[in-house]
């Protein structure tokens, strides 16, 4: 696999530049200090890690020189004379593009993984290296931050906030329910009191009847009392009917409202589907097919050209190699000229070789540029091809859209019919309600009139000595009756009133809320269990895997000085045990050992937590290693690059001009 | 019951996708709320 890096206005270089790396190998970027080596690996790291959302990782990125610090105007990778830099890293089927603007904005096309900077960027100021350098043994952050445990914990916190909200709402509902139950009990008690008081009044009236008084007055009194009872009964019936209709009306209004909302939503969806269908119908398959055919033909021609250019480059490579061989021989043997390899007759000088090499290299560079252009055109054509195929395939969606459209239209029709039915019933009730109100009003007037008549008869009756105390008791009971009736009315009103609760800004009727909350409780509980399981697996499993990886690396590296490097599974402290089984305190490691141990930990962290991104980049990490250790380390990197098909790109400061070479 | 199971599956899938893309907490909170509101509205219909 090849990775192609395109840089525009990155670092000191103005304009476009192209770099290529092969996977399965270690590529070394060599050159003098300030020759522009680091910006190449920094650009790769930035493209692979953006967006950086964690404050701590951002501060690491700032110290690596790849992210903008708070007091800086723009990214440190943007050329100081330009307003915009572009980084494009293409590998496999992935193209990562980053745009860095003068105003400090960073635009990306697809997100990378910010943890790349912890695990895959081997630099002297990496977080792991800083810990080792300062002799800190506590590496619990590797497990919590590198594994997904921390992210799962963040999700768990969000979920808990919803569960807490649910509990508080539930308490509110329970309080409301308790109030309702209390009112219901009170209502029953009041109703019983009402019956008892009515019975007592009736009894008193009978007792008054039994007393020997004016028979005409008695008959009149009895008749009016009977009438009053009858009217009161009708009055209660009218009130009940009114209440029933008012309740029905409120339900109808609610249903109409719900129907209207659903119709509106469905109609919007129908419009969206119509627009999508129109767009899909406009796709012209014939012209797409023609376009595809054109692209395939063009790509075939381009591939042929690529083949030719590659052949030319290979042949030039061979020429350069041969020339180099003779040239080196001349230098080594201090000879000034060599036998001409074409005529075998004359001689050619050193300067001739130098001129030829310059010419051939220039020619090769031109071919290389042409090759890159052709390959880029093939890539662009491939993207176009995929887009066209996608457009072609999207035609199949028309059928699905039609089905969905039909279903939604049917629902809208049904809901519309139901809404009309409900509207008719609402009209009917609207017409009946004034009649009930009129009846109630007329009964109230009649009741008042009868009560006045009773009062005037009672005034006459009170003259009879035996009647007076009974009438006094009756008056008291009648007053009590009024209070009880008012209480009953208030209690009934409060019990029948609909309660609404607000949850996430949505009004929910109290009748629905219990089922709804029960559902949400079940959902949150299940999701929470799933998250807990993942946190456990991520923390424990990740530490064990991490240790296994370090063990494997030490074994493969065959470093003679260490027997074991591992994280303690209790407290995640780093233990280093030397070959003679003595414990090595971190701060007593030599400079070179610190680089080795931190690089081992980083590679292990990469293998454990970040294996999907096939890149490791390193900036001058081998500087402090002695030659033997460097060779072992390089061999190990070559092995893992080959084994995992990774790109490993390292910089190294030398006295050469900037050069890229696989090692 | 089966509706709840589908919702649980949908939420877990959403969590996994967010993890895979590298969790952006503020984005997750915003979208998670939208998801819960949608579930609530569907249940109220």
Protein architecture, described:
The complex is a heterodimer of chains A (663) and B (45). With 663 residues, chain A is of the alpha+beta class. Chain A has four domains: 2-118 and 612-662, P-loop containing nucleotide triphosphate hydrolases (Rossmann fold); 136-204 and 465-584; 212-261 and 395-463; 285-391, Helix Hairpins (Orthogonal Bundle), CATH 1.10.287. Chain A contains 14 helices and 16 strands. In chain A, strand 5 (94-101) and strand 6 (106-108) form a beta hairpin. In chain A, helix 7 packs antiparallel against helix 10. The longest helix of chain A is centred in the middle third of the chain and has 67 residues, at 215-281. The radius of gyration of chain A is 45 Å and the shape is elongated. By secondary structure, chain B is mainly alpha-helical. Chain B has one domain (2-44). In chain B, helix 1 (2-20) packs antiparallel against helix 2.
Largest sheet of chain A: 5 strands, antiparallel
Q: Roughly how many Å is the radius of gyration of chain A?
A: 45 Å
Relative helix content of chain B:
over 70%
Computed CA radius of gyration of chain B, to the nearest angstrom: 11 Å
What percent of residues of chain A adopt helix (DSSP H or I)?
55-70%
What general outline of chain A do the C-alpha atoms trace?
A: elongated
Q: Give the overall shape of chain B, derived from the CA principal axes.
A: flat
Write the H/E string of chain A, N to C.
EEEHHEEEHEHHHHHEEHHHEEHEEHEHEE
Domain module count of chain A: 4
Rounded mean pLDDT score of chain B: 84
Estimate the mean pLDDT confidence of chain A: 86
Q: Name the chain pair whose interface involves the most residues.
A: A-B, 30 and 25 residues
H/E topology pattern of chain B:
HH
| Distance between the amino and carboxyl termini of chain B | 16 Å
């Amino acid at each position: 696999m090849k990775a192609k890096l395109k840089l525009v206005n990155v670092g000191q270089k103005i304009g476009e530049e192209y770099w290529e790396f092969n996977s399965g190998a270690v590529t070394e970027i060599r050159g003098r200090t300030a020759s522009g080596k680091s910006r190449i690996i920094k650009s790769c790291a930035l493209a692979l890690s953006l967006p950086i959302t964690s404050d701590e990782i951002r501060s690491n990125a700032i110290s690596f020189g790849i992210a903008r610090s708070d007091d800086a105007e723009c990214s440190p990778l943007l050329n100081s004379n330009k307003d915009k830099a572009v980084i494009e890293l293409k590998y496999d089927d992935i193209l990562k593009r980053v745009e860095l603007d003068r105003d400090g904005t960073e635009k990306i096309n697809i997100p990378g993984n910010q943890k790349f900077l912890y695990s895959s960027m081997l630099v002297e100021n990496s977080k792991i290296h800083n810990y080792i350098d300062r002799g800190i043994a506590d590496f619990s952050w590797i497990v919590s931050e590198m594994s997904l445990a921390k992210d799962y914990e963040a999700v768990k916190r969000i979920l808990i906030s919803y569960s807490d909200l649910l509990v508080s709402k539930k308490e509110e509902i329970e309080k409301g329910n308790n109030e309702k139950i209390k009112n219901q009990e009170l209502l029953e008690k009041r109703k019983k009191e009402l019956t008892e008081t009515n019975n007592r009044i009736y009894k008193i009236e009978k007792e008054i009847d039994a007393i020997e008084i004016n028979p005409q007055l008695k008959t009149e009194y009895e008749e009016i009392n009977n009438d009053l009872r009858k009217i009161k009964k009708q009055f209660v019936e009218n009130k009940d009917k009114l209440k029933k209709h008012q309740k029905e009306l409120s339900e109808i209004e609610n249903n109409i409202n719900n129907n209207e909302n659903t119709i509106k939503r469905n109609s919007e969806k129908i419009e969206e589907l119509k627009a999508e269908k129109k767009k899909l119908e406009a796709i012209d398959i014939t012209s797409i097919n023609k376009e595809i055919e054109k692209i395939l033909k063009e790509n075939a021609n381009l591939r042929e050209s690529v083949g030719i250019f590659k052949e030319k480059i290979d042949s030039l490579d061979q020429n350069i190699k041969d020339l180099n061989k003779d040239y080196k021989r001349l230098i080594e043997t201090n000879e000034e000229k060599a036998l001409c390899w074409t005529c075998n007759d004359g001689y050619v000088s050193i300067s001739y070789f130098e001129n030829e090499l310059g010419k051939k290299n220039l020619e090769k560079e031109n071919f290389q540029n042409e090759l890159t252009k052709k390959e880029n055109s093939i890539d662009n054509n491939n993207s176009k091809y995929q887009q066209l195929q996608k457009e072609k395939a999207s035609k199949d969606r028309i059928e699905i859209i039609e089905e969905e459209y039909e279903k939604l239209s049917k629902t809208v029709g049904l809901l519309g019919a139901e809404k009309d039915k409900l509207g008719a019933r609402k009209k009917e009730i609207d017409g009946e309600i004034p009649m009930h109100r009129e009846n109630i009003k007329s009964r109230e007037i009649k009741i008042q009139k009868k009560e006045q008549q009773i009062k005037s008869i009672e005034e006459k009756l009170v003259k009879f000595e035996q009647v007076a105390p009974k009438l006094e008791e009756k008056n008291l009971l009648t007053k009590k009756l009024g209070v009880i009736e008012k209480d009953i009315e208030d209690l009934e009103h409060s019990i029948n009133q609909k309660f609404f609760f607000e949850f996430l800004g949505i009004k929910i009727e109290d009748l629905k809320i219990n089922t709804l909350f029960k559902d949400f409780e079940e959902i949150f509980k299940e999701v929470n269990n799933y998250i807990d399981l993942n946190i456990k697996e991520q923390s424990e499993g990740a530490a064990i895997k991490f240790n296994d990886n370090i063990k494997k690396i030490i074994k493969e590296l065959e470093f003679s000085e260490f027997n074991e490097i591992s994280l303690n599974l209790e407290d995640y402290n780093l233990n280093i045990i030397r070959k003679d089984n003595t414990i090595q305190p971190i701060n007593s490691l030599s400079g070179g050992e610190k680089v080795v141990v931190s690089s081992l930990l980083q590679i292990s962290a990469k293998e454990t937590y970040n294996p999907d991104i096939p890149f490791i980049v390193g900036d001058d990490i081998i500087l402090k290693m002695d030659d033997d250790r460097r060779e072992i380390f390089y061999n190990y990197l070559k092995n893992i690059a080959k084994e995992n098909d990774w790109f490993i790109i390292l910089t190294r400061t030398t006295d050469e001009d900037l050069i890229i070479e696989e090692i | 019951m089966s509706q709840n199971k589908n919702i649980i599956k949908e939420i877990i899938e959403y969590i996994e996708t967010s993890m895979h893309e590298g969790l952006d907490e503020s984005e997750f909170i915003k979208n998670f709320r939208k998801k819960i509101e949608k579930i609530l509205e569907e249940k109220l219909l």
